[in-house]
Design goal:
Length: about 400
């Protein structure tokens, strides 16, 4: 019997016992679909986060008091550090390998125009030159200029969604809105950035940094965002910024920094650690499903060997070798798990695509995930079908012919 005939026998057995076949394949279907869905989700998120970090610039870093920290005790300790100031940003900007550095601060306010209002708009005070270090391009109008900063002008650049919600079809350039308690002249509208994990990235209003300080005072620390002069100068720019800030803030030699430098690689590393932990947990659960599915396949194959003992004897009496019987039952087991793998692959890929359409989570069904799903299903069939196949091949032809 060749491989095609063995596969046909397995498919006939599936058709003859549909309920038993479905229950047999359930574990494999669940395991493979889970693996495909998880890989698609993790890869989609990785691609999205990588593109977001790349859009902000791989040679951009930020400096603040806390940095990337999730320990509440450490966050509380770092919050007690001395505030970073706009003068610190000016010092960093003078570093030889730093192309630009700006200070910024932010808060959440209500934006209003007439009877229209938006709550929880991100109001950000930005120094001139922010376009060199921030991914906030202007689509219409103009960005905040040096003259706006020097005169503490009440002007603003609106995010695309804020402009749309407050002005509708009207041209917002030259219009006025109330941001918090101050009236601002709209001088520009930012390029639409869309949403990130269900949160709009266009719900912001930018005002000159000096205007922000005039409204909210200097009582809080600023965030310094800097860009190096090319990727090759990235490390040197960070070292220079660190040295300048340590000197300005009188940090003793050997003492740790009283500020944190945050790079895109830190965010990416943190993200991969997080998704890696989630991936391991979900894959562990999927492995249990595959194990259960494999055991069920082994059990069904053992039952099949017992039911077909006389058939095995007849085949051997007609000249079938033990190797032929072994291959026949091994192919049947692989066919069973392969069908389960294909169904699981379709369900997993379909589920991942559905998640991408119905939720803000990005997904990506890669060829690697498809190949991996089919490979896992095949390995389950080989591993758990080996013992039943070997047991069938060891049958004594005489005893098998006598079996009733």
């Amino acid at each position: 019997m060749n491989v095609r005939e063995s596969a046909a026998v397995a498919i006939d057995a599936l058709r003859a016992n549909r309920l038993r076949s479905f229950l047999t394949l359930t574990g494999v279907i669940i395991g493979v679909s889970s693996v495909i869905a998880v890989i698609s989700l993790v890869q989609g998120l990785d691609r999205y986060v990588s593109s977001q970090l790349a859009s902000s610039g791989s040679n951009v870093f930020s400096i603040d008091k806390v940095g990337v920290e999730f320990d509440f005790t450490k966050i509380t300790e770092k919050e007690r550090r001395r505030d970073l100031t706009p003068e610190d940003a000016e010092a960093v900007a003078r570093a030889p390998h730093v192309e630009a550095a700006v200070a910024e601060r932010g808060t959440v306010v209500r934006a209003r125009r007439g009877n229209r209002s938006l709550i929880r708009v991100q109001l950000r005070g930005m120094q001139p030159g922010y376009l060199l270090v921030n991914d906030l391009p202007v689509e219409r109008g103009r960005p905040i200029a040096e003259i706006d900063e020097q005169s503490r002008a009440a002007v603003c650049v609106l995010g695309a969604e804020v402009a749309e919600q407050l002005f509708g079809r009207l041209d917002p350039i030259g219009g006025e809105i109330r941001v918090g308690d101050v009236r601002c002249l709209v001088i520009g509208v930012g390029e639409r950035k869309g949403s990130s994990f269900g949160q709009s990235q266009d719900m912001y209003a930018l005002i000159p940094f000096a205007t922000f300080l005039k409204l909210f005072g200097r009582a809080e620390s600023v965030t310094i965002t800097a860009r190096s002069r090319g990727q090759e100068a990235f490390e040197q720019a960070q070292d220079e910024a660190r040295a300048m800030l340590r000197a300005r803030r009188h940090v003793p030699p050997g003492a740790p920094d009283d500020f944190e430098i945050v790079t895109p690689d830190m965010y990416m590393s943190l993200w991969r650690n997080l998704t890696g932990a989630i991936f391991v947990v979900i894959i562990g659960v999927s492995a249990i499903s595959l194990l259960v599915g494999g055991i069920v396949i082994m059990n069904i194959m053992l039952v099949s060997v017992t039911e077909r003992t006389r058939e095995i004897g007849i085949r051997m009496a007609l000249g079938a070798r033990r190797r032929d019987v072994l291959v026949q039952f091994l192919v049947e087991a692989m066919t069973l798990s392969g069908i389960g793998g294909v169904i699981g692959l379709a369900l997993g890929a379909g589920g991942a695509i559905l998640i991408g359409l119905l939720t803000p989570l990005p997904t990506y069904v890669s060829p690697m995930a498809v190949v991996l799903g089919l490979l896992i299903a095949g390995l389950v069939g080989v591993f758990f079908g080996a013992y039943p196949a070997a047991r069938a091949a060891r049958q004594d032809p005489i005893e098998a012919l006598r079996y009733e």
